[in-house]
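Hi all, long-time lurker, first post. I run a small reading group and we've been trying to get comfortable going from sequence to structure in the token notation. Rather than ask abstract questions, I figured I'd post a concrete chain and ask someone more experienced to write out its structure so we can walk through it together at our next meeting. Sequence below, copied exactly:
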Amino acid sequence: MKKITLFSALGILSACATSPQGLERPEYATTFQLDQGYQLSLKNIVDGDGECRRGPLLPVGQVINDVHHYPDLREAKIVQGASGVGQQIYRVISVRGIDAGTEVTVYAKHHGPKIAEQYALWARGNRECIL
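-- Answer (accepted) --
Happy to help. Here is the structure in token form:
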């Protein structure tokens, strides 16, 4: 049983990066666009995530769920991960205002399109938890 737990923990950590920049690479990106303002999209994502977020799988320390909002640049970044035994970032969501509305890019090493599908639902105001 201890070996299974150890291998599960190692598997989870291998899908992480130690900084947001470690994930913000084209091969980990899934992008979608919305025809609504970026501030509404950001609010809906934060609200949906707050309603659907599960507790951490491993009690490794503190959960990271930082929202960096830059209204003058019309963009925001959500950084999710855990800290305790080092810092492990497992998801970065970029929300950027564009002329046609909003562009959202989800950076994740595994299951990026499925995770982006969840964020697209939330961004549109749907609170369904599909993950």
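A couple of things your group might point at:
The first helix runs from residue 2 to 14.
The first strand starts at residue 29 and ends at 34.
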